[in-house]
Amino acid sequence: MDRAALADFLRRRREALQPEDVGLAPGPRRRAPGLKREEVASLAAMSTDYYTRLEQQRGPQPSEQMLASLARALRLTGGERDYLFQVAGRNAPTAVPAGTHVAPALLRVLDRLDDTPALILSNLGETLVQNRMAAALFGDRSGHTGLARSEIYRWFTDPTERLRYPEDDRDRQSRALVATLRAAYGSMGPQSRAGEFVRALRKASPEFVELWERHEVGRRFADHKTLVHPELGPIELDCQALFTEDQSQALLVLTAPPRSEGYEKLQLLRVLGHERFPSDLLPG
């Protein structure tokens, strides 16, 4: 581990970023360039003290998970991420598996979306990052681990995952998720993480087996969908997807036409994470 190189790289990358680059409000005039240490620490989900010690060449060797969080917080490119791993004394990933490193270009778009639900998914259905509105709509997905990080796996193994969709739309969603996994399986191969998902789901779900044998392939996101929120009820939304060039990640943005019922419910959703509504004030 090259402590001096690591500290200098972290400091320079931090100073090269502005608050608006990572979705933060500019705030008052700053005396020092770039982000504050506490801002980087918050973005990387670590303590300010831990991050400060890294910049001061006195911190412990970061884990691979911690380095991946720093790479995302600092909006590093693939090459910069590899360098970060190397100076920290860790082996840089030879290839970026889905869910390891969020595409900086998609993150820059997500950072500017704070008034509508938006999230970035891997090609295995893992939520890599979601904004506050998406967490309010879908629930906070950051606590899932292992195979359960994937919405595809949860859909076929956890009945509560389907409650966010109307009953008459669940068959379509099942087919769409299997087609998405089939596309990932085709590009990644049977010995990849996609293959691991397929083997696990074939054991866990007869429904998955039946759909898998249809050999439907594609990244499917309905242009218009209805999601069921536990307090606001059905919300009709338009869904747009922006993919990375290699199709390994997708940014999903959900919106509703102005003055529509869906739009009004999104406005309520903006404060739902901080306040609980009396039942007589909820729509429907």
TrEMBL record:
One of its GO terms (molecular function) is DNA binding. Gene3D superfamilies: 3.30.450.180, lambda repressor-like DNA-binding domains (1.10.260.40). SMART domains: HTH_XRE (SM00530). It comes from the Bacteria. InterPro entries: Cro/C1-type_HTH, Lambda_DNA-bd_dom_sf, MLTR_LBD. CDD domains: HTH_XRE (cd00093). Residues 30-81 form the HTH cro/C1-type domain. PANTHER family: BLL4672 PROTEIN, BLL4672 PROTEIN-RELATED. This is Helix-turn-helix domain-containing protein. It comes from Micromonospora krabiensis.
